[in-house]
Amino acid sequence: MMALPTQLARWIHKHLSIKFTFAGLASNPFEMRFSTIKRDSNLLNRNRDIDNRRDVDEAFSQLVSVRVLRDVQKESVVAGKGKVVEVVYRLFPTNEFVKEMKVANRRLKGALSENPTPSFR
User: Number of folded domains in the chain?
Assistant: First the structure.
């Protein structure tokens, strides 16, 4: 993860690692919205949303280059006079990322079963 050059790409990678608990098939897309990334990451602080969307696109291309994502499909939601009001990203993980998430989920499940939280009575 630290090989990623931008903080936004690292945040997206961490977010995918946390949320990607359904790691079954690499063909299952994970959807993220631009508005969610902007709200939750607090890393998109440019004055124009077009510049912020460009930063998100660059972060996704970085994740593709380090083989976390296989493909990113982008769908713009347009209103009125062609103004983009939302962007929906469909993220397709690589097989390597799916394997890593399965191993991590198994490891976490094993650690929780070995060390259950104490009950207070």
Answer: 1
